Amino acid sequence: MPAPLVIAMDGPAASGKSSVAREVAKRLGWLFVNTGNMYRAATWAALRDHLNPLDEDQVARAADSWNITCPIADGQCIVQLDGHDIEEELNNEKVNRAVSFVARVPAVRDRLVALQREIGRAQPVVMEGRDIGTVVFPDAVAKFYIDATEEVRARRRGLQGQTDTVSERDRIDSTRKTAPLIAAQDAVVIDSSHLSLDEVVTCVMNELRARGLIQPKA
Ligand code: CDP
After folding, report:
1. From atom 12 of ligand 1, which residue's Cα is the shortest distance away?
2. Residue nearest to ligand 1 atom 2, measured at CA
3. Closest-lying ligand 1 atom to the alpha carbon of residue 12
4. What is the radius of gyration, based on Cα positions, of the chain?
């Protein structure tokens, strides 16, 4: 079986990786996949079911009952719960506070990683998350780790009008036992603290071109 065409884009909260991944996917004509939204959908399901996100056993027992799917419509991968579009709920404050606890549970990760692999094997994707280059697709054709200082990331999230404790999420994401947030050894690390979105996208496209993954003019 040929290696899947996956570009992995990992990094901490509010580092700008979603915007970069979306734009790179658009330029390549590949599917953009936001795996954070899948963990957010699982968190929304846990809160809906009145679970305690801190209770790992409780969350693990419920994980198999959640019907999370990612149908593709108009070139977009939309996260659904029980067949309903819930994107509007995914960035609310309760989800922001609970998501890193739900995402550290291995049973939750097993389910969502299987879904991510299914999507990535079916078509070329730019997939963003925390563990795409290390766990989900260690054989990705290119891996990027988009970083920025904590101060810059907190400011960016504030500008989006969100109350989000990015440093607390990063602490939990980086120290969990299963699939912690870490740059893959073969990832290209880009510090976006003092770069515009366009400049980061240019870095990524130049790297892809240098590796012969895209045509000189793409
Ligand atoms: O947008 P932002 O970078 O702040 O977060 P996100 O990508 O929506 O991810 C939300 C949370 O999901 C993260 O803080 C992680 O706890 C979890 N996550 C993960 O564990 N693995 C992934 N591949 C993606 C997200």
Report:
1. 36
2. 13
3. 3
4. 17
